[in-house]
Write a structure and sequence with these properties.
- It is a single chain.
- It is built from ten helices and two strands, in the order αβαααααααααβ.
- 47% of the residues lie in helices and 2% in strands.
- It is mainly alpha-helical.
- A two-stranded antiparallel ribbon has the order 1-2.
Length: 206
């Protein structure tokens, strides 16, 4: 670090390119029970603000913080929010997913709650605002129905937007069969997107 003149970009690049940081969450054969020597990356839930930004990115929507009085920009991401905004959905997600309340006396994430709860599951599965995002007329599905050339390419795009990979053959076939059996292509792809948002692969760092 000293030799590189305290260049933080160099430091971050070095850490991110290290074998330890890039360790897979799938342990090597014979090391499945090893919890002390970092044999595999431990699965962790996305932090509250990261999860909400990931939800927005996957659905192609945004959340207005309703904080113009405090001169907050309209395109502000949740990870940039210094304290709870007036937007009730954002506040609810931050509280439900365990983000600690910031105050002048304590500037520490050590109080962050990392445990899972049924409220977290129900939020993504049933919250009206989540469904509004999935069905947004300017959102991910609406744009794919307008721009993509085939149902297979739409399924591929939804996988890339949510779990950052292409689907396997069986996954693609199952999604296409679901879309074909839906009352409309729009409803079908909305269901595919909703299903991907509720997978462990979307919710966990791995």
């Amino acid at each position: 670090l000293v030799a590189n003149k305290y260049d933080l970009r160099w430091l971050h690049r070095t850490i991110l390119n290290s074998r330890t940081y890039q360790q897979s969450s799938t342990p090597a054969k014979g090391a499945e029970a090893d919890r002390t020597h970092y044999a595999a990356f431990p699965l962790r839930r996305l932090p509250a603000e990261v999860m909400l930004d990931a939800l927005n990115a996957a659905t192609g929507t945004t959340e207005k913080m309703d904080m113009k009085y405090h001169h907050w920009p309209d395109d502000m991401k949740t990870v940039e929010v210094p304290f709870a905004p007036r937007n009730p959905f954002v506040t609810y997600v931050l509280e439900t997913y365990g983000r600690p309340k910031r105050n002048a006396a304590v500037q520490c994430d050590c109080e962050r709650e990392g445990a899972a709860s049924i409220f977290q599951v129900l939020t993504l599965a049933n919250h009206p605002r989540v469904w509004e995002k999935v069905r947004d007329p300017q959102g991910r599905v609406a744009k794919l129905l307008k721009d993509a050339t085939s149902d297979a390419s739409r399924v591929d795009a939804l996988f890339l937007a949510t779990v950052s990979r292409l689907p396997g053959d069986a996954e693609r076939a199952a999604c296409l069969a679901f879309v074909k059996g839906a009352e409309s292509a729009e409803r079908g792809f909305q269901g595919v997107l909703w299903g991907l948002l509720n997978t462990k692969e979307f919710l966990l760092q791995h």
